[in-house]
Automatic annotation (TrEMBL):
Keyword Membrane: yes
Domain of life (superkingdom): Bacteria
Species in which this protein is naturally found: Paenibacillus residui
Alphabetic keyword roster: Membrane, Transmembrane, Transmembrane helix
Transmembrane segments: 36-56, 85-109, 115-132, 139-162, 182-201, 213-240, 260-285, 297-315, 321-339
Protein's name according to its UniProt entry: Transporter
Amino acid sequence: MRRTGKIMQVAFTYIGTVVGAGFATGQEILQFYTRYGSAAAFTIGLSCLFFTWIGIKIMLMAHKLEAQSYEDLNRILFGERIGNYVSLFTMIVLFGVTTIMLAGAGSLFKEQLNMSYQAGLLLTIIFSYLVLTRGIQGILVVNSIVVPVMMIFSVIVVWSTLSLPNAGQWLQLSTDSSAWRVWFSPFLYSAFNLAMAQAVLVPLGSAIRDRSVLFWGGLIGGIGIGVMLLAAHIALAARMPDIAQFEIPMGQIIRHLGPVIQLLYVFVIFGEIFTTFIADAYGLTLQLEQRTRISRTQGIVLILAVSYLVSQIGFSKLLSVLYPLFGGVSLLWLIMMLFPRRRRTYTL
């Protein structure tokens, strides 16, 4: 039972790291999958394959290398010199995503709970500090609480969709997009999320000494991400094309389930933002500790403080500028994960 618990902690942490604000609102699923019609079921399957295969691979490589942070992994993938530059860029990307998540939390408190933007930022930072100072164990515990709740809401959303006249529309939707765009989308989505997930998957792989726990945790986590993607896609597809006009499409679906469920869903969105935020902040802390002489606690305080300052720019502005920039480099990283330079030494 103890081993099973560890496996589920790894799986939940993997899911919680990948599932962020864009996933919770439904906007990512809509843009990367549902808009491409019936082919989305197959592209989600392809993404699920990547999340399962590469997620396991990252953790087992980190386990074998005893990697301190994702920088050790990038040096193996790209070589010492290029790997150093890739890690530096990844550090910038992680910081960008961290500030986006923090800004998203502030916007959520303001728009959904009628609290001030600054109060949302400060509460998120305080909760994050309490978790991050407990290291990887704190992240495991938080995800073990938040992710099962996310999954319950996925079941509720699909269950509410089954009674609709268009419940089977996810198998019949058409699209005007080219085949190239349809099939490129899952590569881009998977690459970006996996490149970001290494911030936690690498130290997780190094911290847990049982390879089988990492394997099964990665397998369940990757499949879990795929199932949650498909569940959201089914719900969104049943309400196309009208649902595409909303900024938070999943919020519109939940709204019809009553005010109590709607309020609970706001906290689910916050939980999904929070798990991604602490994962990326933790990865940054390890990288900062490895590259400088400051302690881990000092690194946590520095990252949270600078994230607070940058998040004053606002959620939508950060999102529109930073995300497209990160996508291309993430694809290169995915290719290197698929075909590592030192194949004989690090084949899993």
